[in-house]
Design goal:
two-stranded antiparallel sheet; alpha+beta; 3-stranded antiparallel sheet; TolA/TonB C-terminal domain; 5 strands
């Protein structure tokens, strides 16, 4: 019973909580502004972080520097590894994580690749460099003979 009471209070607080009170006596223009300010969105950056030579440069870097693990070739492992990492305000890369994994050394190959990347151009928010989370999908596909 205690669980249900706690859940009831939790849900009522979530549904009825407002950051700014909206009253019917507020003119429509101000009401629209209050509603817009209370909506929670993902951060919008003035400029997202980018590889030093752009998207095409990143694709070329991955294509030329990715080492297909021998074990993965032998076992004919194909698929996509998705990694995430933070681009810091100085353009360095930190906190590499594998979000979607492949066996036979593919994850490790992607981590090595990311660690060898040069510094990125950091993201900007209103002219100020900010930390940026980036997700990089890397495809492993064997050449057809």
């Amino acid at each position: 019973m205690k669980k249900y009471v706690i859940l009831f209070f939790l849900f009522t607080n979530v549904f009825f909580a407002q950051e700014k009170p909206l009253s019917p006596s507020v003119p429509p223009q101000k009401l629209e502004k209050q509603i817009a300010e209370s909506v929670c969105e993902f951060p919008a950056y003035t400029m997202e972080a980018a590889f030093f030579s752009g998207k095409e440069g990143l694709e070329q870097f991955v294509k030329t520097r990715l080492e297909y693990p021998k074990k993965a070739k032998r076992k004919k492992t194909e698929g996509v590894v998705v990694a995430s990492f933070f681009i810091e305000i100085d353009g360095s890369i930190q906190e590499i994580k594998i979000l979607q994994s492949l066996p036979n050394g593919c994850d490790e190959a992607v981590i090595r690749l990311i660690k060898r990347m040069p510094k990125w151009r950091p993201a900007l928010d209103q002219g100020r460099a900010v930390r940026f989370l980036y997700e990089l999908p890397v495809e492993f596909k064997l050449e057809q003979k």
